[in-house]
Amino acid sequence: MDLNKLSRALIPDGDLIAPEEYEKIYPERNTEKGACVTRLAPSPTGFIHLGNLYSALADERAAHTTGGIFYLRIEDTDEKRKVDGAVESVIRSLNYFGLKFDEGAEINSPLNNYGPYYQRRRAKIYRSFAKKLIAQGLAYPCFCSAEELDAVREKQTQNKETTGYYGAYAKCRTLTESEIYENLKNNKPFVIRLKSQGNIENKFTFNDAIKGDITVTENDKDVVILKSDGIPTYHFAHAIDDHFMRTTLVIRGEEWLSSLPVHLELHKALGFKPPRYAHTCSLMKMDGDTKRKLSKRKDPELSLDYYRKAGYYPLAVVKYLMTVLNSNFEEWQLKNPEGDYRDFKFKIEKMGKSGALFDLEKLCDVSKTEISRLTPEACYDFLKEWVDEFGAESDKAHFENKEYILKILNLIMGVGGKKRRKDIERAEQGVKLMDYFFDDTFNVKDSYAYDKNTVNAVLEGFASVYNPADDNSVWFAKLKQVAAQVGFAAETSDYKAAPEKYAGSVSDAAEILRIAVTGMKNSPDLCTIMKILGKERCMKRLAEGKAK
Ligand code: GLU
Fold first, then answer.
1. Ligand 1 pocket: which of 122, 256, 258 to mutate (most atoms <8 Å of CB)?
2. Cβ pair 209, 276 in contact under 8 A
3. Nearest to 3 by CA among 118, 131, 90, 194
4. DSSP β-ladder status, 283-287 and 356-357
């Protein structure tokens, strides 16, 4: 059979560029030895999830800790799954978490020399190489209809055989020249398949950057490389794009591990040196006693929007993911509490080989710690950004008064104290925490443990002596005085020595006051809260807080 002629009949020359030319168009990159070129290659479905961020962080770190390049390629071969604005959303989401691409789709960069970065715009390249494979006898047209393929699959399932297009099942592999031209004459639609040279009997060992040595079986399937509309499959596009975009390390989900023999065979057929592969394990969570994969349907925390809406501190999400990526990151962070996570020596080889556990509670802890480290001004900016996007109208109004919020933040963050307080774990909860500082959102959550007369005596007594100019010790001395007047022990030690002699102690009097002023039994320092609220508001609360 004249294969050159066949290749031209199947894929007309048209405006195709010779395959060899592409080696010149996309030359080796000018990166230092050992530098990793990595990529994030999402489909533009509009759903960017924690797994993508996890993988992107590994890509970004692998590139940027070695002086390499991290780029964005859009795998849009499946037109049906495309969502408008999805690419911008990927970039925006990753930027939110502080990850930046060096080049790629929609990235304004002088480095963009390996594009187009949308697969649909690379059709010419794929066609040129498919044509070459046909001419070399390494690919062929397949005219099987969907029904025929279904029938093959059914038969294989019945016979308990591996499903797929291979061996004797690969009917079109043995079509004669005249059969092929006859089909073409009749305009029968066709796909292009790889003519696999592999043998299922042969095993070989392959070294994965994460999983180490893995023994796999050679591919023997004649996988589709170009679909009937001329658009490549993932397999073919991956081999060509990662070669010509000069990717050195392909980090991708372990669900691709089973296709690895196909990819290695494709690289060989195309005459390319394969990149290094790193197959990441899936993110898991504990569900009761069992560990399971995070699921789009069951777990809202899989969506990256969840973290923005709940207002986790973005750097905390990244730092927590660093711990999941490299378990020694936590130790490094303890030794370098102020250290930038980018200074940690990330190692792809240290990533977990199986199920990475993602624990939302741990993330909360990291988020608390990160927020507690901020200056009140930086914390204000962080909360304000959240309020602008997700806050209630009341929150928006409150945040207009920056000076007032800063006073609150100084208190609830424990600025000036021995140790910072970790009351704010994320923006949504932190903003709520401030509700009692404003009349329109103040509400009484806890109830008094004393009868009406006692409560009112404490509130009235304190109202009559309160002076916002008092410092903490004067404030407390006055509270003791009021406590004694209503039959409470002024000193806790007195109360402890003879509880039967008193109605309660000064701390019980403080609780009454606290509930009236903040609506809660627990709060940061009450004297400071009252100073922030101002005399007028305090007097109103003491009056309105009286038991009915
Ligand atoms: N488009 C593929 C996916 O979203 C990319 C896999 C890869 O990184 O090679 O799963």
1. 256
2. yes
3. 131
4. parallel
pLDDT of residue 47: 82
Closest C-alpha to ligand 1, atom 1: 42
Mean confidence (pLDDT) of the chain: 96
Ligand 1 geometric centre to CA of 252 (Å)? 6
Q: What residues does CATH 1.10.10.350 cover in the chain?
A: 452-544
- Nearest CA residue ID for atom 8, ligand 1: 252
pLDDT tens per residue, range 460-517 = 999 999 999 999 999 999 999 999 999 999 999 999 999 999 999 999 999 999 999 9
Distance CA(151)–CA(158), nearest Å, equals 11
Atom of ligand 1 nearest to the CA of 75: 1
Report the nearest atom of ligand 1 relative to the CA of 252: 8
CATH topology of domain 3-15+123-279: Rossmann fold (3.40.50)
Residues of the chain with CATH 3.40.50.620: 3-15+123-279
List, for residues 1-26, the tens digit of each pLDDT value: 999 999 999 999 999 999 999 999 99
Q: How many C-alpha atoms does 18 have within 13 Å on its Cβ side?
A: 3
CATH code linked to domain 452-544: 1.10.10.350
For the stretch 259-314, pLDDT in tens is: 999 999 999 999 999 999 999 999 999 999 999 999 989 999 999 999 999 999 99
Structure confidence at residue 79 (pLDDT): 81
Taking each helix axis as running N to C, give the angle between helix 506-518 and helix 452-465, from 0 to 180 degrees, rounded to the nearest 10. Answer: 80
Pocket residues for ligand 1 (CB within 6 Å)?
41-43, 75, 238, 250, 252
Q: Which is it for strands 249-253 and 276-280: parallel, antiparallel or unpaired?
A: parallel
